[in-house]
Amino acid sequence: MKVLITGGAGFIGSHTTAALLERGDEVVCMDNFHDLYYDPALKWRRIGPFREDPAWTLYQGDIRHAELLEQIFSREKLDKVIHIAALAGVRNSLKYPQLYEEVNVKGTLNLLEAARRHEVRNFVFASSSSVYGDRGHAPFREDEPADWPISPYAATKRAGELLCYTYHHLYGIPITCLRFFTVYGPWGRPDMALYLFTSAIFEGREVRMFGDGTSQRDYTFIDDVVSGVLAALDTDLGYEIINLGDCRTVMLRDFIALIERACGHTARIHRLPMQPGDVGLTCADITKAQHLLGYNPQTPIEEGVRLFVDWYRREMVG
């Protein structure tokens, strides 16, 4: 089976690539190696293990370029697509809303059009828990309305889900939209809290904590997310929206304490106000994922944080 992974040099994309290659699939990676969030050198390091693998092909390009997508789909004769490429992050979306719309909405539409023309057999779309908005109750269920996004990023992800439904309805493309809940782990993005907090602690800098530390997140280890992505890729569900989370919430102050313990150092915390677009709570109901995908997260937060800190110490501290 030949699979296109957009955003294939990213955090989730590179881990998914490794899993696909390990089981014998061919992978076509597309990534534009942009530097909006962090130095793209990290992306090149992530894909280093694949570059000599004959089952792996790289295209450096942008999903906004429909002509390039047409060339890739025509040349590679793809069976399935995992669409992860996006501008991520709530706070940057407030700074660059037009850019987020161009990449996350137009880019997704370009891919759906290419998938339609080339009769792709399954399409997995990486969505986000941010589409649920700022809810005061948990856990979040897929059949609840997602009509009140509070950031441009969240709005673009919800728009992507709606476009996916439209293309399934009109053209019969099997599409699964996976709502990720705060994915973390080795090779994670440097703009994410775990990486930022860990680097600050190791370097003796202040940890910037937004709010009073009582906000709660459902943190999902990368290996668990990859297992859900592959299950969705292998299962023709028609059209579905499915949460991929851990179904366990962790307070921000407790999350920082776990990082302190793994690092062996105490954080110097600088409290700041909550940021616009941030939500106070995320928590996935994973009943649907368990039923349809056999999804069963295996990595508790304590172990996941330790694995990340061990990786950071080895790869970034030396």
List keywords for this structure.
Rossmann fold, globular, 13 strands, 318 residues, two-stranded parallel sheet, seven-stranded parallel β-sheet, alpha/beta
Give your account of this protein's structure.
The strands form four sheets. The protein has a seven-stranded parallel β-sheet with strand order 3-2-1-4-5-6-11, with helices on both faces. The chain is globular, with a radius of gyration of 19 Å. The chain has helices at residues 11-22, 41-46, 66-76, 90-95, 97-117, 152-171, 193-203, 222-234, 252-263, 287-293, 301-317, and strands at residues 2-6, 26-31, 56-60, 80-83, 122-128, 175-180, 183-184, 206-210, 216-217, 220-221, 239-244, 250-251, 268-272. Strand 1, helix 1 (11-22) and strand 2 (26-31) form a beta-alpha-beta unit. The protein has 318 residues and is an alpha/beta fold. It has a single domain, classed as NAD(P)-binding Rossmann-like Domain (Rossmann fold, 3-Layer(aba) Sandwich), CATH 3.40.50. It is built from eleven helices and 13 strands. The mean pLDDT is 97.
Number of domains: 1
SS summary, helix count: 11
Largest sheet: 7 strands, parallel
Gross morphology: globular
- Using only C-alpha atoms, the radius of gyration works out to 19 Å
As for the CATH topology, it is: Rossmann fold
**What is the CATH class name?**
Alpha Beta
**Strand arrangement, largest sheet?**
3-2-1-4-5-6-11
Order of helices and strands: EHEHEHEHHEHEEHEEEHEEHEHH
Question: Termini, distance in Å?
Answer: 38 Å
Give me the count of strands: 13
